[in-house]
Amino acid sequence: MRIHRFHGGMRLDLRKQAALARPIRPCPLPPQLAIPLAARADMAARAVVAPGRRVRRGEVIGRIEGAHGTTVHASTSGTVLAVEARPLADADARAGPCVVIEPDGADDEQRLPPIEDWRDAPRAALLERLRETGIVGLGGGAFPSAAKLAGAQPTLIVNGAECEPYVACDEALLRERAEEVVAGAALLAHVLGAARTFIAVEEAMPQALAALESALHAAPFEGAALAAVPTRYPEGGERQLIQALTGREVPSGGLPQDLGIVCHNVATAAAAWRAVARGEALTARIVTVTGAGVVEPGNFEVRLGTPLAWLVEQAGGYTARAARLLAGGPMTGVALPHDDVPASAATHCVLVLAEHDLRDAAPELPCIRCAECARVCPARLQPLQLLADLRADDTAEARAHALADCIECGLCAYACPSHIPLVDWFRRGKAELRAQAAARANADAARERYRAREARLAREREERLQRSAARRAELAAAQAPTPPISKDAVLAAIARGRARKRVPPPGGESGGDA
Amino acid sequence: MFAALLTLVLVGAAFALALRCAERRLRAARAPVTADAIDALLPQTQCGQCGYGGCRPYAEALARGEADLNRCPPGGMAGVRALANLLGRAPKPIDPACGREKPPAVALIDEDVCIGCTKCIQACPVDAIVGASRLMHTVVGDLCTGCELCVPACPVDCIAMAPVEGRTPPPRPGAAARTQVAAS
C-alpha cells in the first residue's frame, strides 16, 4: 500500500533498546495505591466508595455520567483509606482527586461475565461493556473509548506507530501479545462496523511487525491490513498517521470522525478485547520505565495508582546520574517536581534523564525568525507567529492563527536554535483559550439568569401593583353602600325619635304588669 | 528654489484633495454593529462599573456610538481588544475612573456572621446567592460572576471576595522554566 507524507516531522534518535532488552515484568503491588479519578484534566469521575469500604479488584470506585461516561475501578483488593486530592503525574504535579486503597495482598478479582460470542452481540451491549470496564485510550489521551466508538465509521486505524524516543510500551505489547491486539482490532472493527482496518507500526519495529503478521495469519478478519510507516516523529500522532495511511488531512478544528476514521491505540484494542472476552476491567497498563537515570530500564505491567517512586524502585532505582523525572516521553512528557505521584491510564512512560541529556543550561535567546519551527511543525502552524501573539497576550490573534491545532509534539522547541520553550508557551496559550471559552459559557449562563431574574422582578412588581389596585377597589366598594345623607332624611329621623318619646311603645307597660 | 517649493506644496495639496474625495466617496459600507453582538462580548457581571447600570445598556450605548470601549474592567484588556476588533476602533487602556482589572474572584459569605437579612440576595443580579429570611445565606461559587454588588449591600460586612483557583493563568514561560527536550 502507498504511504503518504505529512508536513514537517523529524528523524530522532529512538533509544528504545534499553527498555526492550527484557520482557514485560509485572510490577509488584505497592503498600498503597492512589487511583486518580481524573486521568484527563477535563473529566473527573465522582467517587462512589467511602473510606473504610472493602473493595475487590475490578470493582467500580468512580463514575463519569453522560455521553462521555466511563468508570474507574479498584486495581487490587483492599480497603479504601481515603478519597482525597493527591499530586498527579501532571505538569507541576497538580493535585487531583484520588481514591487511596491499602491492598490486602489477596488481589481478589471481580469480573463481569465474558461475552464469548461478541461477533453476534449487539453493538449497544459491547459499548456498554467498554463503559462498564472503564476502557479509555491508552496512547496517552485517556479519552473514554466507548464515546469514540459511538457512531459507525468505515475505517479503523489501530495505532502501534509509537514514534517518541524512549517510549516502548506498545512495542513490547506487540512483541509479546500481538494476538490480543489483533483480536482487539477485530472487536473494535466489529463495533464500528468498519470495512477497512489498518494496524500500523513503524518500520523500525521489525519484531513487532513479524509478531503481528503471525497473529493476523492465525486469526484473520475481513478488511484487516498491516502497515509499516516510516520512522519519522510524530508519525504515531493520530492526525499524522491518518495522513500517512490515507493521504487525507483531518480539517482544522475537526475530528478524524469527520473523515469517517477512528483511531485507537494498540494497547486500547488489547484492553477492549480483555474487557469483552474475559470481563476484565481496566486496572493495569504497560509502562516504560527508562532513561540513563534508572538502573534496570524495562517495561512493567503496572496497576493504576501505583506511585512512580515504587515503580522506579522495581526498575532498580535511580542511578547517580539521574537529573530529571518526566511523566511521558522526552518530547511530550511533563517534568515532575517529585516522584510521589501515581501512574494513571495516561502514563505510558516514566523517563529519568541524566544531566547530559538536558539542554536547559543553554540560555534562552531572542527569536531570530529563522522559521525552523515552522519547517518541522507537523500541524503546519507558524510557531514563531504564535509565540509573538502569546507574548503580546493576544490570545484572539493566536486563535486566529490556529493555536488550537497544535498537537504539542515538541518539535518546534527541539528545533529552535534560540532555545525558546515554545511548547510551554503553546500549552499555556491553549489552557488560556479553554479558560476563555469556559468564561464565555459562564457569562452566557449569567446573562440567562439575569434575564430570568429581571423578568421575575418585573412580574412580581406587576403582581404587586395589581394586588394593591385590587385592594383599593375592594376598599372603595366596601365604602360605597353608605349613600350621602340628605337633610330631609335627618329631619325625618329626628321627627320619628320625638314621636317615640311622646307615645310609649304598645305593650310596654302591660308586659310589666304580667 | 521658490518654484520647487511651490510645486511640492501644490502636488501635496492635490494629493490631499484627491485622498479626501476618495475617502468620502469610496468609504466601505459597514453594517452597523448590533447591541446583541456587543452584548455577547461583555462579561455579563451586570456590575454597572461602566456607569450604564448593566451590560445590555452599555452594549446599546456602544452600538449608538455614545460610549467609550474602555469602560468594562471585568472584561479586562482582552475584552477591550475584542470590542475594538468588533467595532473597528483602536483599543485603549481601561478607564481608571471605572475601576481596575482584577484577577477572577467570587463572593464568599462568612456564614458565622451572616444574620440572614436577604439584602445580598436582592443585590445579586444573577441569582447566585441562596438563603431565606433570618436563615444563613451562601454564594453558589459556580454561578457567581464576581460583580461585588453584594459586598456593600451587607449590613454586617460578612461578604469578602475570594480569588478563584484555577482561573488565574499560569506564569509566563521563561528562561527559568523547565524545558522537556533532550539533546540527541
Walk me through this protein's architecture:
The complex is a heterodimer of chains A (about 525) and B (about 180). With about 525 residues, chain A is α/β, with parallel strands linked by helices. Among the domains of chain A are: about 15-25 and about 115-335, Rossmann fold (3-Layer(aba) Sandwich); about 365-465, no CATH class. Helices cover about 35% and strands about 20% of the residues of chain A. Chain A contains 15 helices and 17 strands. In chain A, the strands form 4 sheets. Chain A has a 6-stranded mixed beta sheet with strand order 1-14-13-17-15-16, sandwiched between helices. In chain A, a hairpin with a 7-residue loop joins strand 7 (about 80-85) and strand 8. In chain A, helix 4 (about 170-190) crosses helix 7 and helix 10 crosses helix 13. Chain A is elongated, with a radius of gyration of 36 Å. Chain B has about 180 residues and is mainly alpha-helical. In chain B, a hairpin with a 7-residue loop joins strand 2 (about 130) and strand 3. Chain B contains 6 helices and 4 strands. Residues about 175-184 of chain B have low confidence and may be disordered. Among the domains of chain B are: about 35-85, Electron transport complex subunit B, putative Fe-S cluster (3-methyladenine DNA Glycosylase II, Chain A, domain 3, Orthogonal Bundle), CATH 1.10.15.40; about 105-165, 2-Layer Sandwich (Alpha-Beta Plaits). Chain B starts with a helix and ends in a 21-residue tail after the last strand. Chain B is elongated and about 90 Å long. Chain B has helices at about 1-25, 35-40, 55-65, 75-85, 120-125, 150-155, and strands at about 105-110, 130, 140, 160-165.
